[in-house]
Write a structure and sequence with these properties.
Layout lengths: L1 H23 L4 H22 L28 H6 L13 E4 L9 E4 L3 H13 L12 E4 L11 E4 L5 E4 L9 H11 L3 E4 L1 H14 L8 E4 L6 H11 L3 E5 L8 E3 L5 E3 L4 E5 L4 E6 L10 E9 L2 H4 L13 E7 L4 E2 L5 E2 L2 H7 L7 E6 L5 E6 L7 H12 L4 E5 L15 E3 L3
Parallel strand pairs: 3-5, 3-6, 6-7, 7-8, 17-20, 18-19
Antiparallel strand pairs: 1-2, 4-5, 8-9, 9-10, 11-12, 12-13, 13-14, 15-16, 17-18
Helix pairs in contact: 1-4, 6-7, 9-10
Length: 427
């Protein structure tokens, strides 16, 4: 009975809201800004009334006249602050909510609450951003996901999810020459037109297709998420599939979504979250839909290359009127390598160099607490450019102890199933 009620509720909510979520992205910028301000006002009003952490700030606001910049009257918070006293961030009047948590890849997971309808909003945004002039995605459209599924021994490489059983989650762990035909058959069988997954998974799958000269013309859209999309990965995927790669930036905390369109611009979903970029390049995010545990000015731990205000206000050829807050995501705070003097360097500096080294299919850089560095590379057994790599990395980070190690594959994090390009133990 509970399952039936959930399906009916979700179906009714989707039918009632989906058209407005599709239409808003093409509305006038002022109309979008007015909706964003309305949602932000509700979040601040709710938080300062019902959330212990924010109650002391209520007198800071004139609720008859709130502007977007008023959000700066509230402090920046991060995961460590919320973890210490999570109950201080709960809406005391909230009754219906779901309990979620982050993956815990950096330690103990963050547990939090979200409204029950938030996953439906995520779904509607997914559908609207996947659709374009050549392809319209619906709730019943099939989807291949090369991520977040690990079959047990003897189990098939895929499993179908969703109320329509149209989401085909396929293992990112078994992509190789021997299994390639199985992966291709699964995609053909699914009749999916959207291929979604970790950048590393789609990249590795594409390399295998290239070796065999296999094309899959049924795929119309490629979406990447959850890992940093390296320039070298993007180039290989786009060149083989002849399709743009739509990269998604989001978090398990569901504070904001910033999504690439077919023209390569990162559009903040202005009806979903409010995005600020600090002077250091940190993404400070506010959820506009979570009023049961408001995430307001939440330091995501991610860094981005900002776009100037004038460029961010320009219209995009895709027709969407959402703001464009940054050029690219540079990585998380733990994706930055450190020089001996403490200077932090984003992963992009190293990716650009390593992508130009011949016969390096994948790499991972590990920096230890003593600043020494191991560079894991996937390359042919006769690879002989170790010294070139060491010299190139030293040019960027200084004269630190550096070692190149050839491996068969880059391991995935057992908790998240993702691949990290940079892993650092420097505090």
């Amino acid at each position: 009975m509970n399952l039936l009620f959930t399906l009916l509720y979700e179906g009714a909510y989707f039918l009632r809201k989906n058209k407005s979520y599709v239409d808003i992205q093409y509305q006038d910028k002022e109309k979008i800004k007015a909706l964003q301000l309305k949602k932000l006002t509700h979040i601040i009003d709710t938080a300062t009334r019902n959330v212990p952490f924010y109650k002391p700030y209520r007198n800071e606001f004139n609720f008859n006249h709130i502007v977007l910049d008023d959000i700066k009257k509230l402090p920046v918070v991060d995961k460590s602050i919320i973890k210490k006293n999570p109950e201080l961030f709960y809406n005391e009047r909230a009754i219906f909510f779901d309990n979620w948590q982050t993956s815990g890849s950096t330690g103990e997971p963050l547990k939090f609450r979200v409204p029950r309808y938030l996953k439906l909003i995520d779904r509607m945004i997914f559908l609207r951003m996947m659709s374009n002039r050549n392809f319209h995605m619906t709730a019943r459209s099939s989807l291949i996901m090369l991520s977040s599924y690990s079959p047990g021994e003897g189990e098939p490489l895929y499993k179908k999810f969703g109320p329509f059983k149209n989401v085909w989650r396929v293992s990112p762990f078994h992509i190789n020459e021997k299994t390639l035909e199985q992966y291709v058959q699964i995609i053909v069988q699914s009749k999916a037109e959207v291929l979604s997954g970790y950048p590393s998974s789609i990249y590795l799958f594409t390399l295998q297709l290239m070796k065999r000269g296999i094309k899959i013309p049924s795929i119309k859209v490629i979406k990447t998420a959850s890992e940093m999309l390296l320039p070298a990965y993007r180039d290989v995927i786009m060149n083989w599939w002849k399709l743009p790669v739509l990269d998604w930036y989001g978090q398990a905390e569901m504070t904001a979504l910033v999504i690439q369109c077919n023209y390569g611009n990162y559009h903040n979903q202005d009806d979903y979250g409010f995005c600020e970029i600090s002077e250091r390049g940190e993404l400070i995010l506010t959820s506009l839909n979570n009023d049961v545990m408001p995430f307001i000015r939440y330091n995501s731990g991610d860094f981005a290359e900002p776009i100037n205000e004038q460029q961010g206000c320009l219209s995009c050829p895709c027709g969407r009127q959402f703001s464009i807050p940054f050029k690219q995501v540079l990585g998380r705070s733990d994706d930055l390598l450190s020089k001996q003097d403490g200077t932090r360097i984003p992963v992009v500096n190293f990716c650009t160099f390593l992508s130009k080294v011949s016969n390096v299919d994948q790499f991972k850089i590990i920096q230890y607490a003593d600043y020494s560095i191991d560079i894991l590379i996937v390359s042919p057994s006769n690879f002989n450019q170790h010294e070139l790599i060491i010299a190139g990395i030293r040019d960027r980070i200084g004269n630190l102890p550096i070692k190149v190690v050839q491996v068969d594959k880059i391991p995935r994090n057992p908790k998240t199933m993702k691949q990290k390009t940079i892993e650092t133990f420097v505090q």
